[in-house]
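Repro case for the chain-ordering regression, as requested:
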Amino acid sequence: MSPVSLHDPSHRETLWELEAAFDRGDMVTVFGACTVEYDGRAASSLGEGARLLVLKPDGSALVHTDEGRTPVNWQPPGSEHRAAVRDGRLRVRSSRTSPDETLDVRFTSVSHLASYPVTGGRGVDVVGSEADLKQRVVEEPSLVEDGFEPAATERETAAGPVDVFGTDADGNPLVVELKRRRVGPDAVGQLARYVGAVEREEPDGVAVRGVLVAPSITDRARDLLAEEGLGHVAVDPPDDAAGAADAPDAAESDGSGAAGASEGVGRGDGDAAATDGSGADERT
Amino acid sequence: MSPVSLHDPSHRETLWELEAAFDRGDMVTVFGACTVEYDGRAASSLGEGARLLVLKPDGSALVHTDEGRTPVNWQPPGSEHRAAVRDGRLRVRSSRTSPDETLDVRFTSVSHLASYPVTGGRGVDVVGSEADLKQRVVEEPSLVEDGFEPAATERETAAGPVDVFGTDADGNPLVVELKRRRVGPDAVGQLARYVGAVEREEPDGVAVRGVLVAPSITDRARDLLAEEGLGHVAVDPPDDAAGAADAPDAAESDGSGAAGASEGVGRGDGDAAATDGSGADERT
DNA sequence: TACTCAATTTCGCTC
DNA sequence: GAGCGAAGTTGAGTA
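-- result from build under test --
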């Protein structure tokens, strides 16, 4: 009798059932009126109110109100759930170490509790991620610009890994930063950071160009890009992946495109351009 | 009879209760075996498995497996929930526009359904945020460095808003970026971006310094900081806010501290330094 | 509505 | 475990 549900249980009954569910490794939901206290990476407190508490066997705890996708309070996986009755209230405490943090949920009344064995079925397949965009660019480098030849993906620099690194039509280094959605100033900063790092790593005098590949870009980001001498190439998401076009910024391309003679000199450093397995494998 | 719970209901019963709950504005939890399809900003599909579905009256939908704090699939607030029986399965569809996206949850069997009126009690008070750190710095500018005089918070620049802007002991502009936790290269990029923007806005020739205020910093970030001629000041979180000290990087300070004569020249642009109300007010 | 950034971000990956 | 960046990020605040 694993799926269990209690109506208006006493705290004592709730306590029993919670501990039994923890032992079984069941997932538990509790509807009721409670207060919530959190202390750890920050600290928070939440006054009395009607809420949903979800307890997972992996140690996760979620406190949800009637609004928002994000829980109003929570505890990450790896925590340990305990329950007790104190001062006439049912206390559910979830805590973990490194970092040390504790979530306390105190119910004044429990309206409903349910427990259920939920196992497996976690492997979700997502299409339309940045990894997919990277694969597209590697397979079709002209999406970035004519003459672009990818040499490596995730190439390490002193400033972090570059999405796609290669050479332009003139054989000069080109840094490509990919974003699956509209970008702001932060993405420009990221690209500028990588370009600067590659510049310092190059034998001096070599100009390093940088291009931001994204569906669209904010005005401020565009100004910053120009300020830094960097470029932007608009790439629309494929129709089959994302149903809704984000912004019709179509086929624009202000990457300071070097005119194209001199077929790629092919400075063959870094590892070969290859898609680094973005195939999400089902793990049941 | 608002709190409702069904055991091993037929799809027909589930359908009825779901629609009633939507009408009442109740929050609903459903345990059962289902598949999940999402299409919108990206696309995803999830094979059959035991899961928890949470439906909120504000349009949020969450699909949870037994692991992880994050739902395996979801729909943001503002969506509309509908339910139907199709091909012998119970389908719960949640969709919204702008962006256009739809979540389809198809149950082959429902083990349990509960609905409950969850209203209000959403106002959580959080202590230890970046806003709190900002307040500390504004009230005690010497935390950044001796002679620092804040002139404005959230001062707008072409690169975005600067956390704290002011003048150093020499009266030269100082840009301060605050982080409540250990920082990496991205924070350095952010600070560099702001410093560059302020430099361009200053009458030429004026040196603009930048300091990253954070509990600690990674090696790579430190190198980048040095490369950019920027500084770091370690500030530990107050004991009462965060219980666990993140890293004992104590009282270090490699902000390229200018020696201190010349009491702050006070270039009085921007608005006055003032804490911008970080007091979270309860909204019930 | 769009922009900008924080978040108890979480999560996955690599070293 | 730390570091690094993506995310269907979400959410808050402001113009």
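Ordering looks correct now. Chain B touches chain A through 89 residues (CB under 8 Å).
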